[in-house]
Structures are given as C-alpha cells and as structure tokens.
Amino acid sequence: MEQIKPNVFVETKVRGCNPGYVVTRDGVVVIDTPQLPSKAVAMRAEAELHGPIRYVINTEHHVDHIFGNYYFKGTGTVVHHRGVYDNFMTVYPQLDPFEYAREALPDDPEGAHLFPGREEYYRDPNKGQIVFTGDLTLRLGDHTFNLIHTPGHTPGQIAVHIPEERLVFTGDTVFSDCQTWLMTSDVDQWLAALDQIRALDVDTVIPGHGPVTDLTYINTQRAVLLDWKSAVADAIANGWSREETVERVNFTERYPVDVGQEYMMEYIQTLNAGSLYDKLTASPSS
After folding, report:
1. Per-residue pLDDT for 286 more than 50?
2. In a domain, 286, yes or no
C-alpha cells in the first residue's frame, strides 16, 4: 500500500478498485476492500498493525469494491448506503459478480486457495451492519468521515470526505487516467455528483481507479462523460441504429483500461455506447 499522507494508505496498482485505509487515534477505517483474495488478507494484516479496524465502508456495490469484505469478517462494523446494501453481490443476467471475482484469480495465484465456494461465500459475505440513506457522518478519534451520497455511476454511490486529511475517496465517480465504465449509470446524476465533489475543500482526490489526483481532474472526468453523451446523441441525430452506434462510437485511444483488465477494452466501449443509446432513445415515462 502507498502512504499518501501520514495517516492515509491506498493501493492503486493491482487489479480491482483503489482500496485504502485511514489511521485514527482510536483505530482504523477501511474504505473499499480488494477484489483479489491475497491482497485483501494482506491489507487487513497491514491495517491492523496500526490498530483495530473500527469501520469498513464500501463506496458502491460493484464487485471490485466489495468482494474483499469476506476477508474482513470479525473486524470493524460494515457501513453501507442502502443502494449498496440492496445490490450487494446480486446476480444479474448481464453479470454474475461471484464468477467475475473468480475470473480474476489468474492475477492472484497466491490467493486461489483462499477463494471460497459460492455457497460458503453467500452464507456471510460481510455486508452492511449500518445501513443509511442520504448522507452520514462518522467520527472516530480525531477524524471525521463524511459519507456523501453521490449517485450517478451507481444509485448507492458515495464519496468519503475526510476534512482533517483534506482528501476525498470518490469511488468510481472518478476514473483517473483510465477508461471510464458507464455501466448502467445515470450520466446527468454523475455530472451533479462531480459538482458536489468539486465543491469540497480538499487537495487530494482518491479515485475509484487510476492514480491519486486532485480536484483539477474533476473537469477531465466531466469532459469524458460529456464526450460520451454528445457522441451518442450525435449518432442518434444522424439516424444511426444501435448496432451502428456501438460499432462506430468509441474512445479507445483516450485512455488504457485499468490494471489487469486490458482485455475488457472492447467490452467497455460496447457497453458504454449501447447503454447510452438505450437511455437517450427511451420513451419518456408516463
């Protein structure tokens, strides 16, 4: 883990999200957990060298942010927005999160023996004991953790603002210097979430993926979202079908895919263009 401030540690160079932890005088707060089993076990051990883990907070329900909770059982209280809790490791037709986690095991040969069976995992995956809606503030020792609801990338998305450290963990509201996954996101909500983050008094932004950055990157992330939306809107205006839009609209040249998922480039482009096309051509709800 990289020590980015005296009390803050983050991992940005392995497959999965950017998990981290914050050391306070009364214990440790973990923010997102590693997807790879050996990394989750190692992160827990490292964090506990600084004191007991008091809270485990997940910024969203996507598997790369939550799978490692399984390896933090018996430590701190797990804190989830209702949108994270309700969607935690839910199997959808488009994606089975458990199998997606298993698919990453070649990147973690040391963790293969740590990977649980499906039945064992789902018996207790270690989901929220504190479940909230809106925003929530936690205080531990000399630190404040403002859990800010920032929907867009996912409905239950949160940012974790720690004013004493002048930083914010944004989760996947920010993809720093790597491909943005739109998934089934609401781009307009996402843009509003970026405005919320930009208004914070911080000097460090810990993104969901990619290198640690600062508030100036918020403008870059906004541009990425707007470019995607504009390109698909132009395709629709030009009369392109969904298939033509998926084939022709992509931003592969802009950024690489995050660590370990290089093979997903085409999938990301197809998913982003297709999901935006569906949203922009959907009939208004009655």
Report:
1. no
2. no
pTM: 0.96
CA–CA distance, 278 with 286 (Å, rounded to integer):
17
Contact 281, 229 (CB under 8 A): no
- Identity of residue 75: T
Specify which residues 31 forms β-bridges with: 20, 57
Domain count along the chain: 2
Shared domain for 131 and 254, answered yes or no, is no
SS3 assignment, position 263: helix
pLDDT score of 141 more than 70? yes
Pairwise CA distance, residues 38 & 40, whole Å = 5
The CATH number of the domain holding residue 31 is: 3.60.15.10
* DSSP symbol at 104: T
| Intra-chain end-to-end CA distance of the chain, in Å | 50
Pull the structure tokens for residue 106. Answer: 């070649």
Q: How far is CA 31 from the centre of its chain?
A: 10
Say if residue 108 is exposed, middle or buried (CB neighbours under 10 Å; 0-12, 13-18, 19+): buried
Residues 205 and 250 in one domain: no
pLDDT in tens, 173-195: 999 999 999 988 999 999 999 99
Q: Has residue 177 been placed in a domain?
A: yes
Residue 180 belongs to domain spanning? 2-215
Nearest to 175 by CA among 222, 209, 206: 209
CB 184 within 8 A of CB 190: no
DSSP state of 153: S
